[in-house]
Design a protein that fits this description.
Helix content: 55-70%
Number of helices: 11
Shape: globular
Strand content: under 5%
Radius of gyration: 18 Å
Number of strands: 0
Largest sheet: none
Distance between the termini: 20 Å
Structural class: mainly alpha
Number of domains: 1
Length: about 220
Amino acid sequence: MKLKTSLFLAGTIALAACSSKPPAPEWQMNAKTSAERAAEAWLVGDARIEALEFGRARREIASTGRADLLARAELLRCATRVASLVFEPCAGFDALAQDAAPAEQAYARYLQGTATPADAALLPQVHRALVGNAAPDAAVAAMDDPLSQLVAAGVLLRSGRATPGVITKAVDTASARGWRRPLLAWLGVQRERAKAAGASDEAARLQRRIDLVAPPPAAR
């Protein structure tokens, strides 16, 4: 299932130019294609292909000597982790942060759940409301891009602001796309919340769904 080009690095964090005149250089198209494949592979749960494709994208971008572009690619990779609730330092970006533009630095803080009001204007349009006081459910539902929805939901969970509605939306979005990795993560959140609320039947139902989605041990 192919991701939309507009997903990658959320509009302002894009690898390829939209114009066909003059034609985009080969490195740019190769990097874009590999970045798309890497993101899709991560979301469906194929870590081996993700690493292979991201390595290709990184090599293509590195051929330009542009650390700022490489920083953008690393942010995309980190965004897919946040969408899947893998909360860890964005080490690839951190190594390049001093050469990144203010917009990329703001987006990195956003992914970490530490964006400030001053960062809002630097973020992609769809994410700006989440730095302010917008209702989380409405803000996520208003996004028409599935990866952006999952990233936003992940940021909200990381910063302790995810509502049950946001979590349900994340589950539904990941399910509709067939993105096994974030689906398992978000179903796990729902299950733990059901357990905490004493809703044993609901927790058991969610566990059955997790068992259905989880790949067999040999494929993990």
